[in-house]
Amino acid sequence: MNELAVVTRHTGPRIPPSVTAPVPLPIIRFVNPDGTLTEAGRSQEIDTDLARALYRHMTRSRALDREALALQRQGQLALWLMSWGQEAAQVGSIAALRESDMVFPSYREHAAALYRDITPAQLFAQWRGIAHSGWDSQKHHFHIYSLVLGTQALHATGYAAGVKMDRSDEVVTAYFGDGASSQGDVNEALNWAAAGTLPVLFFVQNNQWAISTPPAVQMRTTLTQRAAGFGLPSWHVDGNDALAVHAVTREAAAWVRSGNGPALIEAETYRMAGHSSSDDPTRYRNPDEFSQWEARDPLLRLEALLKATGTSRSFFDELDEEAQAFASSSREACLRLADPDLADLFESVYAEPHPVTSREREQFIAFRADLETEH
After folding, report:
1. Cα(253)–Cα(171) distance, rounded to whole angstroms?
2. By the 8 A CB rule, do 187 and 251 touch?
3. Residues with catalytic roles
4. Whole-prediction pTM value?
């Protein structure tokens, strides 16, 4: 009898595995869904000016979302991925960063993009199919959208390596979702960032659905607990509470900025719309679940708090008018976007002019002119 057979036929007492049930981190929340303050919120000095500013940016983002979805339905945009329901997670976090901190988004960080002064027309260019990206990444310190799931986490990590070499105190932030956290790129980024003590803040918007897959099917433990396996400190925050997100992001960014290496924030939020304009969430989502999260709407929560703390009715009326005007101007900007000139394609192949592509561009222009003459 060989050794393997002896081992497999062993009938002695079994040694139980050393895996124990992990204890989840408590969720940080300052404002309840009804707008009242939690015990943690009451211990804070609530900045009403900050709350109003966050609310304004969140309102503008939702107005853009609704208009963009209408534009897609009317054939003006090829696709749109809504951030409806995730405004507090995005605005609360990016408002806590410095303007000079580089951000690597995924593909639905519209609220964060607007906060960095990226215009609706610049956002629409990609979704209208006329440009790879509509904005200057370095000017806005906001990278172009990444449609390859999770790749931006590695981009952020590589960028952060350069930041560390420059001895800068810049914090590089990577946004991604619970679904992307299951990708190899994200796990590699977490490991490399930790091993290299790189200044990366990983911000996970856990919106409960990776297209049609819930977190319970993807992972056995929470995202914040998984971070510990890579050696990262983590925070678990109510992603629909803009003030809590802002406070947590400010604390985590300060930790990273001090040279301690990467950190992770899990913002518990909800994608109220479909994964994209081509997705039907009613095919996999329970209506009761939607109703429960609808009651936790981040805008309604902050509005209730502002009203309770004395914000005048005129503030909300003026903001409603501003949001309507913003949506209207966004539509006009989209319709004014011109189709690209195919000749411009040759100029973006290389970072600097190249003799081969320059010659090909001239040949193409001449060929097109001949065709126009013939017709």
Report:
1. 7
2. no
3. 271, 275, 284
4. 0.90
